[in-house]
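Here is one chain, start to finish.
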Amino acid sequence: MARNKDEKKRRILTATLECISRHGYEATRLRDVSEASGASIGVIQHYFGTREQLLGEALAYASGQLMEHFTSLEEGQLTPWEQLRGMISVVCGMPDLQGRGLLWLEMSSLVRRHPELRERLDSVYFLWDAKVRAALHRGAADGSLDIEDPEAVDDLVAVFLAFFDGYEYEIAS
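Its structure:
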């Protein structure tokens, strides 16, 4: 029973993300999510309460999926370069990359109008930064990456993060 409930909630969250990508955050309505997910508005409200709670949980769900993928790239099992390549593969190989790019752009623009979403957006950036930084420091320390100046890591992290954002922006547009 709990598995069915979890699956239904995932389906609703996925449909919500699709609706946000298609219509934008402010224009997404419970009716849109109901039609996209096949769940009644009553079921959606039962699981998520208000529209704002649903949209917030959907954005958290999207962030959580990305974090799971990045975290699955265990440092001990991969070389620093393999870990960096894995992160690039995660971003470039996500299902519905255009929709995800549109979602990310929407989320980035939302924080000015909805400051309560800042924490969700920042959590993704902090994760990306931490994972990229750790791989680069490890590669500099073990000599597998040709980084002579440890201070260059900050610049390299900025390059990787700019790549991720730029790639998603390009795909989305």
